[in-house]
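A quick aside before the break. I want you to see a complete sequence-to-structure record at least once, exactly as it would be stored in a machine-readable document. Don't worry about memorizing anything.
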Amino acid sequence: MAKAAVASSNGNARRARPLLDPRSPTFSREFRKAAKAFTKRATASPEAALALLVKEGILTKSGKLSRSYGG
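That is the input. The structure line, written in tokens, reads:
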């Protein structure tokens, strides 16, 4: 499986993750595993959840909805 080079927003390199191939017979299983890991990281704490929502542009740093979402 191919590896993806990933750079974080602050410029530090992160560990490369394998790319999921939708044509692979194990795609569904791999996708569910990746989604579960993402959810675990994103909901590990209120701070982690807020950081993710801010990074995605859904909330502001103060926790309010961004303008794109009617805030």
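Two observations worth writing down. Helices lie at 27-42, 46-55. The chain has a mean pLDDT of 84. We'll return to this after the break.
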